[in-house]
């Protein structure tokens, strides 16, 4: 018994290829397998890139759709050639000239060039003004500007008078270049070029070779004429022929839907009523002043929309649309102030209710009655039935997936014919690994003309799905150009509409809906997936509309179906012939057009003799790359490189002919492949072989550097999937590496170390440089973010700070912020003194203190890190500075460093003992700026606290905050067996010293700069004022750390400061290098630069 899924749909004597009936198997070319990987040609690149390459190579006429595409290519070309125009005009620097037809287009082009480049642009649109300028005045303009945008009249004047010679122009851009066919200044400018020995590169831009209907022969003649006048080749971008000219063309079918037989007479009756109503409104004799609104406008619009729906879709839909319009009218009536307008709206409202009443006599509005729809609708439903997916047991497991956001989703697995089901099951066993949980094989668009048709047709299809199990699989939605327009004034309602449309598109892209009913807005510009069914419900009326909608059917197996009424079919077939002829002409003009004859040639049979394959393991079934499979491997590898949704990574292959008639190819991989160098292949007898051999050599190189695994699959995020498909898990447990750059597969790269910090560790008796790390609190933390109501500590209040000691000067870098608990602190690095020397003994002390700061204060020394300052890539000392010896300037604080070395609390916990005879004595000044360490816990890594406050009203005998203990003294006795010698000492309120190292972003923002959620201020205030949430310590049981709190707070900023310093110095180095290599900017900054 034949599987029902494989019966091709026969319609009007034509075969309709559905994915299910494809000889390649049912899952070949599913729409969600977005990119088909080509095997015989390199993956095509985006058409803008292709056109740009063509324009860089030779004079070019770009035929592109209207819109920004053309200007964009002109700007790209200007930028690519901008190295020729950045020079001084008086010293042979050239200039780029943009020519436009009229003055009002000048500003448009100027803003495009300014937006997309840093070039200086001059605009000249007024012939009267510009004509009076002298040669000197023009020379000033040419010196000042690199790109000159002028109307053709101004340009002709400038060139004829010899103010600017053609040899001074590097690129001449003609906007609307088709005008050159006529007697136009463009033509005269081109005549001047004929006699010029060094003619500039020419780029012509045109959209209107294709406006409305045009005759193919005329078109061809037009293009040839233009090419001759502009001495250029015409290149159409792929957006005027079906977009991806490499993929298979959709199968095109024109369906004759037959006449509508109106058995009940309802259709005729409704049509007559609507005609009468429209005639009545048109006959109303109302005097309309030009400034007033037309009272009948809304009524006419609504009634003609209703009539259109009746004619195209039939009475059932006309009834539905009348209901919708009544609801919309209510809003208008409610807000209408003017009497006459209101009367017309009420007339329309009554009339629509009449339509609804007439329909109710013939059918119940609740269910769909196919006797009351047009033959077009019937044909459409017939086509959609053919796309019904198979029913398989497996669907049950993915059913929850489809139901997850679709309340009215109908299950597909309720088949009546169980025996038939089993029959299919038997045959389909090997095909169990489904490519995706979205098992809807359909991905289709229906194009309609009017907004209401889209809305109602969507309603009808949903209704049909409820009644017909064959159509239950469809999840449809509609999109109308309402609100997508880019330059419309945006109001709240429009915003909401726009969001709604965006959401519809998102669902369609994600294959959550499988059918989209759209007005022509989706023909161009909107990004949607490759569809395997495109239906034109209304026939295309011009070439552009035909090609744009056909271009949406881009899945490997797809159908483009045009539904025609019997009376229109003859004339449309003529149109279609014209469209095909135009497409053929344009296709030949298509940039890098592939000669289809060549790609279909059978693979080279004994390829091993032509060029030996790359074999991984010598056994028979081992993985190998031959010249026939190599290009596929390269394309697959490029498609797997990490990229964002807007980047289209593809290999670039250039083939050149050698004098002896052989060819060699050079292959360039995308920029983010680790294989950076271009690969040059050996000379071969033909272009095709040259391209294949270079791909084979590239595969070998990629495998050797570990970019292709031992199954010749790209290593990366997709490998897991491939391994499952190849079922490799039986032979061995393969360790699948993670996605490059993720935590599972970190990619190592050499860290850039600024040259001024390399080998700059100070040496004894050699000149040194001392820099101060200046810190100033510029934006104190606002009260609402200061949750603990802590005091703020501006770093500039204390003189002791940190400095950097190096053997080389550090270039000037800008100030930058770090964000501490007190707010935003601005950091500066300033030279304090240079050319002084230090003895070995001093340097050893400085080095020990440097290590102490990072190992003990910041605790950054991890097991894998060793302190070897002389071997490190970047080496300099961080050391404390202070105002020393009564002078008012900062200098190295050697005494402080020596004191630290002597201190017992430097690393561990001092063993001071207090007794009844020598009790603890409290001195307030010792605790004013102190870091303290509890002496009775965490001996291996003691906790360090800032003293936030001294509570003089509390003593160890005060009440303990929680009920288990009476007093603080009892708590310490019970928990730690500690006796206090001084029961009158005050208690200390303390704060943890920070372990947070990244202070480059404010703590109340997340990484992306969004504010973190905050609980209410009252709750927080209560929380921090209750003693239970505070750490209260007894001074006697704590040791005082030799580093004061004010310096400790500055030390916490060091990792962020040094990290930012490295980055800014690397950037400064790059800037200086660019200045010297490219001549952009100044090599070294002036001394007074700030």
From TrEMBL:
Belongs to the helicase family. Dicer subfamily. Residues 630-722 form the Dicer dsRNA-binding fold domain. It catalyses: Endonucleolytic cleavage to 5'-phosphomonoester. GO terms for biological process: regulatory ncRNA-mediated gene silencing. PROSITE patterns: DICER_DSRBF, HELICASE_ATP_BIND_1, HELICASE_CTER, PAZ. This is ribonuclease III. It comes from Homo sapiens (Human). GO terms for molecular function: ATP binding; helicase activity; metal ion binding; ribonuclease III activity; RNA binding. The lineage of its organism: Eukaryota, Metazoa, Chordata, Craniata, Vertebrata. Residues 51-227 form the Helicase ATP-binding domain. The keyword Hydrolase applies. It holds the Pfam family Helicase_C. The keyword Nucleotide-binding applies. Residues 414-425 have a biased composition (Acidic residues). Keywords: ATP-binding, Endonuclease, Helicase, Hydrolase, Magnesium, Metal-binding, Nuclease, Nucleotide-binding, RNA-binding, RNA-mediated gene silencing. Its EC number is 3.1.26.3. Residues 409-433 are annotated as: Disordered. Residues 433-602 form the Helicase C-terminal domain.
């Amino acid at each position: 018994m034949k599987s029902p899924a494989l019966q091709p749909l026969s319609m009007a004597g034509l075969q309709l290829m559905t994915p299910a009936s494809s000889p390649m198997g049912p899952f070949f070319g599913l729409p969600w397998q977005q990119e088909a990987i080509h095997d015989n040609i390199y993956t095509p690149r985006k058409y803008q890139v292709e056109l740009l390459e063509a324009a860089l190579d030779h004079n070019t006429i770009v035929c592109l759709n209207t819109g920004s595409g053309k200007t964009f290519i002109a700007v790209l070309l200007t930028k690519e050639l901008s190295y020729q125009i950045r020079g001084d005009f008086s010293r042979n620097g050239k200039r780029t000239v943009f020519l436009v037809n009229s003055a009002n287009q000048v500003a448009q082009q100027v803003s495009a060039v300014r937006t997309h480049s840093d070039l200086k642009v001059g605009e000249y649109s007024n012939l009267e003004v510009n004509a009076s300028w002298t040669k000197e005045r023009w020379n000033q303009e040419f010196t000042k500007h690199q790109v000159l945008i002028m109307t053709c009249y101004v340009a002709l004047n400038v060139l004829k008078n010899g103010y600017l010679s053609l040899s001074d122009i590097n690129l001449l851009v003609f906007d609307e270049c088709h005008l050159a066919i006529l007697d136009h200044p463009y033509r005269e400018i081109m005549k001047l070029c004929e006699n010029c020995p060094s003619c500039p590169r020419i780029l012509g831009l045109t959209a209107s070779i294709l406006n409305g209907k045009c005759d193919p022969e005329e078109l061809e003649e037009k293009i040839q004429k233009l090419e001759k006048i502009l001495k250029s080749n015409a290149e159409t971008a792929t957006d005027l022929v079906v977009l991806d000219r490499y993929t298979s063309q959709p199968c095109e079918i024109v369906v004759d839907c037959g006449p509508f037989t109106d058995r009940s007479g309802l259709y005729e009756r409704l049509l007559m009523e609507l005609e009468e109503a429209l005639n009545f409104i048109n006959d109303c004799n109302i005097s309309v002043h030009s400034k007033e609104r037309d009272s009948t406008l809304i009524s006419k619009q609504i009634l003609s929309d209703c009539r259109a729906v009746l004619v195209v879709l039939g009475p059932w839909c006309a009834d539905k649309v009348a209901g919708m319009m009544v609801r919309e009218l209510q809003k208008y009536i409610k807000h209408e102030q003017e009497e006459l307008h209101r009367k017309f709206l009420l007339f329309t409202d009554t009339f629509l209710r009449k339509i609804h009443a007439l329909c109710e006599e013939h059918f119940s509005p609740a269910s769909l009655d196919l006797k009351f729809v047009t033959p077009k609708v019937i044909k459409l439903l017939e086509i959609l039935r053919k796309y019904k997916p198979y029913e398989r047991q497996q669907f049950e497991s993915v059913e929850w997936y489809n139901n997850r956001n679709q309340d009215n989703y109908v299950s597909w697995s309720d088949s009546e014919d169980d025996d038939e089901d089993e029959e299919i099951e038997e045959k389909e066993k090997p095909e169990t690994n489904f490519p995706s949980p979205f098992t809807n094989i359909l991905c289709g668009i229906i194009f309609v003309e009017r907004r209401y048709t889209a809305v109602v047709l969507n309603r009808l299809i949903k209704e049909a799905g409820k009644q017909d199990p064959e159509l239950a699989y469809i999840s449809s939605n509609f999109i109308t150009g309402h609100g997508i327009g880019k330059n419309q004034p945006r109001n709240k309602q429009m915003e909401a509409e726009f969001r709604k449309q965006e959401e519809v598109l998102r669902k369609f892209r994600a294959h959550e809906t499988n059918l989209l009913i759209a007005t022509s807005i989706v023909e161009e510009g909107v990004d949607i997936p490759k569809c395997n069914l495109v239906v034109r419900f209304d026939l295309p009326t011009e070439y552009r509309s035909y090609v744009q909608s056909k271009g949406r059917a881009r899945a490997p197996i797809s159908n483009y179906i045009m539904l025609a009424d019997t009376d229109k079919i003859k004339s449309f077939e003529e149109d279609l012939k014209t469209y095909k002829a135009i497409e053929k002409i344009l296709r030949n003009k298509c940039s890098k057009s592939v000669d289809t004859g060549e790609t279909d040639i059978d693979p080279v049979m004994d390829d091993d003799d032509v060029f030996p394959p790359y074999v991984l393991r010598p056994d028979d079934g081992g993985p190998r790359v031959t010249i026939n499979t190599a290009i596929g491997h390269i394309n697959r590898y490029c498609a797997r490189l990490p990229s964002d949704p807007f980047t289209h990574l593809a290999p670039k292959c250039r083939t050149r002919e050698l004098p002896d008639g052989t060819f060699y190819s050079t292959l360039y991989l995308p920029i983010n492949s680790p294989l950076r160098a271009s690969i040059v292949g050996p000379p071969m007898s033909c272009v095709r072989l040259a391209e294949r051999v270079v791909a084979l050599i590239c595969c070998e190189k990629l495998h050797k550097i570990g970019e292709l695994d031992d199954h010749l699959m790209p290593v990366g995020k997709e490998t897991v999937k491939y391994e499952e498909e190849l079922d490799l898990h039986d032979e061995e447990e393969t360790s699948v590496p993670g996605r490059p750059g993720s935590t599972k597969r970190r990619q190592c790269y050499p860290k850039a170390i600024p040259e001024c910090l390399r080998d700059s560790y100070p040496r004894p008796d050699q000149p040194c440089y001392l820099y101060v790390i200046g810190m100033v609190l510029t934006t104190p933390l606002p009260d609402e973010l200061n949750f603990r109501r802590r005091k703020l500590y501006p770093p500039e209040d204390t003189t002791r700070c940190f400095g950097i000691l190096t053997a080389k000067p550090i270039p000037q870098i800008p100030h930058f912020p770090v964000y501490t608990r007190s707010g935003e602190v601005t950091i500066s690095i300033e030279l304090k003194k240079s050319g002084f020397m230090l003895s070995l003994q001093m340097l050893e002390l400085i080095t020990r203190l440097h290590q102490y700061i990072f190992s003990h204060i910041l605790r950054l020394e991890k097991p894998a890190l060793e302190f070897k300052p002389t071997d490190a890539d970047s080496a300099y000392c961080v050391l404390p500075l202070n105002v020393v010896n009564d002078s008012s300037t900062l200098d190295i604080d050697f005494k402080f460093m020596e004191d630290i070395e002597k201190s017992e609390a430097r690393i561990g916990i001092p063993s001071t003992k207090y007794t009844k005879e020598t009790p603890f004595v409290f001195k307030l000044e010792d605790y004013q700026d102190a870091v303290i360490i509890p002496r009775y816990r965490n001996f291996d890594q003691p906790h360090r606290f800032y003293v936030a406050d001294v509570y003089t009203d509390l003593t160890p005998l005060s009440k303990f905050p929680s009920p288990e203990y009476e007093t603080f003294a009892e708590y310490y006795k019970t928990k730690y067996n500690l006796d206090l010698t001084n029961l009158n000492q005050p208690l200390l309120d303390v704060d943890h010293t920070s372990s947070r190292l990244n202070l480059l972003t404010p703590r109340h923002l997340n990484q992306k700069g969004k504010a973190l959620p905050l609980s209410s201020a009252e709750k927080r205030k209560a929380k921090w004022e209750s003693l239970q949430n505070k750490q209260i310590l007894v001074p006697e049981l704590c040791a005082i750390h030799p580093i004061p709190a004010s310096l400790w707070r500055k030390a916490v900023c060091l990792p962020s400061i040094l990290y930012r310093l490295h980055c800014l110095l690397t950037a400064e180095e790059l800037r200086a290098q660019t200045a010297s290599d490219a001549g952009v900017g100044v090599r070294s900054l002036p001394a007074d630069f700030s």
